[in-house]
Request: fold
Amino acid sequence: MKFRVGFQVSVSLSRKHENMKNTLLLLMLFLIGFTGCKDDSGSTMLDGPWVTTSQGLITLHTRPAGYGYGASPDQTAIDSTLVHQNAFIGLINQKLNTGFDEKLEIYFFNKDEVELKLGVKAGGSTNPKRKEIYYSFGYHQYYPNLKLYDYLGVHEMVHMVAENTIGQGGTTMIIEGLAVAIDGTLGNVGETRKLIGEWMAEYQNAGNIYTPTQLLEKPSAITDIEFYAQSGNFVNWLLQKFGASEIAQLYQLNKDQFKSEFQKITGQTYTSMEADYLDETREKQ
Reply:
């Protein structure tokens, strides 16, 4: 990544002004660190033009009509996204017993620019520190648990809320598992999403239920869709069994701490919990 300073400083200093020189150098380094992050083309990921619309806690940035080769959001898409995402923040706060109430920004990129800007063919990512979500526009997906269509969904907003209220997640299993658990669904972008229970029924029929230890370790043999679905199922089970307070404590632990600290946090040994989870998961299918 390249950094560019938007100004120049010319100073002629004698040796007797060495302290002033050092101060200026420190100031320049400080300012350089806060200039925009550039890609190799010299253009920032968030370069305009943007249409900006705000409602509640959210400011949504969308491309204007006629931008590039992909369809841009119309007013109906903008309005529905803002209504849903503000509501999802309330839903997540309720599920996790959190109080996230900070302003955030969502950037919708048109389909033709997503791979260049975000490095993915579809979907997106969240930057909790900057309080920004970046996502591909154009995939109006049905969420059967919520009985509605949405362009963004719940998953990325869970990352935003959790990282800003609970803290930094310690394992991929708990970070992605919590997002899937609260979302309640999983699926390829652009397709009707399936409930986590539907995914788990398929894995049970195939005799392919992973243990919590395997999910913590995440071996390469586990595919991404298996990992996300089964991590979501496991974290949802933990949430139902132990509650939001315990999940918040487990959320910040690395994989070794997750095992060693589990009994201290929940009152149950990790080994017995793992056995209970596998027994109950297999019985449900």
